[in-house]
Amino acid sequence: MPGFTYENCCGGGYYKDYATMSYTSNIFSTDTYRVIDARRTFYDTSFCHPACQIAPQISFSDANPAIWDSFALRKQMTYGYIYRSVMLGAMYVNLDSPVYRMNREESAFLARQIQIYKQWIRPLVVNAELYHTTDRPDNIHWDATQYYDPATGKGILYVFRPDNDITSETFRLYGLDPDAFYYVRSEENKKTARFSGTELMENGITVSCDRIYWSDLLYIQRTDVPVDASNIAWENEMLPLEGGGTATDTSSEPETTDTDETVEPDYTPATQTTTPTGTDAGRHGCASTVGGSLMGSAAVAGVAESRHSRK
């Protein structure tokens, strides 16, 4: 049926086979629902299956700590740490857990993440190169995952800090043009910096934050590619276009709602000294916008051509 999306939620991690995936748009990657399991199973599965078909999921319960994170642990996690863990592939939000507990702040945050996924991440999941930037998530060290599409000059780096005492980490990027320059913008603190491809790949970028169970999205775009300022990733920021001009299409301004800025991470080249900054006053530091649907039937197009890269 044209436009109809089939998903496989039977057996979870047991039925991640090519035969089943040839009939479904996406497939659940695990039958355990802890936040760390979402990232672990995406890491494992994405070495052999298209990222656009992998749907990690999370849920919370006090029943069995081997299967679910508890509600008490959920309260320690930032919203970004929770929801970005299911934005790595085919975004799947398990809203039955727990809708009745979701306040306006969390609802607005989730709506923004869905919009980010639709506007910036989903095209990368389908078309870009996937890089396992760090080792398999172990719930001890920071972990990161990167997409980059050389055809569009766009990419993203997901960063996660679990419960540890490491307040900063350096991540080298992959697949960039060493002779090009790139804008890197933080979703959390809305700051943009300019780096060379060589600098990002050889020295890396250092992310610092004193908040545990924290996450950020770093948008990557080559500086000679016109920036769509109406895209939620850039929020009408006017950036110079190398070769002449500035950002384009500023007519559509995302709807935003002010929230307290709770974490001020620091982003610097790895060759510089970084000092962790920020407070622990709230759950996150993001604005909010309206959201929408998720992966959709676009996942089917990715079945025939899986793009994976090992570091």
Could you explain the architecture of this structure?
With 311 residues, the protein is α+β, with helices and mostly antiparallel strands. 18% of the residues lie in helices and 18% in strands. The protein contains six helices and twelve strands. The protein has a six-stranded antiparallel β-sheet. Strands 1-2-3 form a three-stranded parallel β-sheet, with no helix packed on it. Strands 7-10-12 form a three-stranded antiparallel β-sheet, with no helix packed on it. It is globular, with a radius of gyration of 19 Å. It starts with 6 loop residues before the first strand and ends in a 42-residue tail after the last strand.
Question: Can you lay out the helices and strands and say which pair or pack?
Answer:
Blueprint: E1 7-8, H1 18-21, E2 26-28, H2 35-45, E3 54-55, H3 71-76, H4 79-83, H5 104-127, E4 129-131, E5 143-149, E6 154-161, E7 168-171, E8 181-186, E9 192-196, H6 197-202, E10 205-208, E11 214-222, E12 266-269
Features:
three-stranded parallel β-sheet; 12 strands; 6 helices; globular; disordered C terminus; 311 residues; alpha+beta; six-stranded antiparallel β-sheet
Could you say which overall geometry the principal axes of the C-alpha atoms support?
Answer: globular
Largest sheet: 6 strands, antiparallel
pLDDT under 50 segments (min length 5)?
244-265, 269-311
Q: Treating each run of at least 4 consecutive H or I residues as one helix, how many helices?
A: 6
> What's the pLDDT, averaged over the residues?
77
What structural class do helix, strand and pairing data support?
Answer: alpha+beta
List the helices and strands in order. EHEHEHHHEEEEEEHEEE
β-strand amount: 15-25%
Alpha-carbon distance between the two ends: 39 Å
